[in-house]
Amino acid sequence: MQAPLNLEKDLLAAGKINIAGIDEAGRGAWAGPVVASAVILPVQNADLPTLLAGVTDSKKLSAKRREQYFDTIQAVATAIGVGIISAAQVDKLGILNATKLAMATAVEQLAPTPDHLLIDAVNLTKHTTITLDFFNYGDSRSLSIAAASIIAKVTRDRLLIEMNTTYPGYGFAQHKGYGTKQHQAALNAKGPCADHRFSYRPVALCNQAHLFEASA
Question: Where are the domains of the chain?
Fold first, then answer.
């Protein structure tokens, strides 16, 4: 089911023209960056629901559909911003702060500057002076957030496919850094690579085991 525009239309009626939807991808992954996107859609365009027909939470879409919608959103959106925070920065900042930084970075890239932010689950009040709303399941409740979820997910997936070339044997192109049996088996066999998140328990435990074996 397509994500609705009710929230955006209410804000438009209140005089907010440039409304940015914000979402992230990769918070739970063991490796790779966390990626956030901010998307301003032309909410005043009566044809927008038709132009973005079928756009919803990226997790509900196939990889092929996400790629198709990625191109459509790029063509239709008023503005798009992307923030990418590395695994090393995730380890340094913690995943919540890293996510907030990725989102704030994405917002800073937008031109025009948004009048209001709609955010999936994360409170950015301390990171921006722009008025905002944040709520759970935002990518199913707002078309703008759904569009941002697709941009973030496709961008991150492409980065993990590149990581698969840099670090062969981990299966990054398949599991995208998430905690699958394939990923755990590769970690056990090879130990972590430089783009793993060493603050995450499965990676930390595996790293300790490999360091112990190396010193034995």
Answer: 6-166, 172-215
